[in-house]
Amino acid sequence: MRLHVGCAMWTHARWQGRLLPAGLPPGERLRAYATWCEAVEGNTTFYATPSRSTVESWARQTDPGFRFVVKLPRTITHEHRLTGADDDLRTFLEVMEPLESRVHALWLQLPGSFSPADLGALAAFLHRLPRSHRYAVEVRHRAFFEDERARRLLERLLTGFDAEWVPFDTTVMFASPPASDAERDAWTKKPRLPRRTHALTDRPIVRYLGRDDEERTIGGWRPWADTVADWLREGRSPTVFIHTPDNADAPVLARRFHDDVRARVPELEPLPEPMPAEPLTLF
Questions:
Q1: Which of 82, 120, 219, 252 is a plausible cystine mate for 125, CB 3.0–4.6 Å?
Q2: DSSP sequence for 117-155
Q3: Which Pfam families match (predicted)?
């Protein structure tokens, strides 16, 4: 029984010297983060495919059981909209090879304009993908959440490829007006969609956005803690990513979410103690 929790990134200016040791070189920051969390969203790959040497560094800094949910580049999902991007896809898959089993899923985050009318392109793209990876799809068109036929069509398509539907739960963010600069920024940029809690596979993936107020974030994830506990009892192996608008305490909150689920499922193993932010002393 295993629950992996993580954040949207493994390095953040607000973490240095407070949660993670200060002054870590870039090539050591993932290693330190991995003592806090056992998964991370690979958001940087959306903007550019990294070099193979960079990905080799990621592999060196993490254990084989660490989970990367790696986002496909926007050239594939947004610019080409899944068609005519085979060369970009081939390059990306080759670059990701050093991560081996650490690639928990390759993540297709589709634009809000990608509608039920585009499901044929998604089906053709999934058909071309190698079966050596697992895949997860995030959709943002409201029809998939509000139209029963569109929802069933997408679920049937994803199930046929053993692919997961990734929910991005922003309902707590939009439950009341923003109260900080970071929340105001999130208010204008994040999708406003209904909460979805149905898993299609044995390895569901959840993205949850809370608030910059800790108690509101924790209160908002209680339905997810119940759902994830049920998934664990069913034999599933979930991965949950905790976001807040400023992400200043995201690793702490991710671990707190794990604790909350463990309170519901006591047989879940606790997370190891994280690396201290300051060197240990004798006195």
A1: 82
A2: GGHHHHHHHHHHS-TTS-EEEE---THHHH-HHHHHHHH
A3: DUF72
Type of residue numbered 127: H
Question: Based on the number of CB atoms within 10 Å of its own CB, is 243 exposed (0-12), middle (13-18) or buried (19 or more)?
Answer: buried
CB 12 within 8 A of CB 248: yes
Token reading at 100: 């081996």
Q: Using DSSP, state whether 227 is helix, strand or coil.
A: helix
Q: What is the pTM of this model?
A: 0.95
pLDDT value at position 68? 98
Q: How many domains does the chain have?
A: 1
Is residue 282 assigned to a domain? no
Quote the CA–CA distance of 260 and 87 in Å, as a whole number.
44
Range of the domain at 20: 4-264
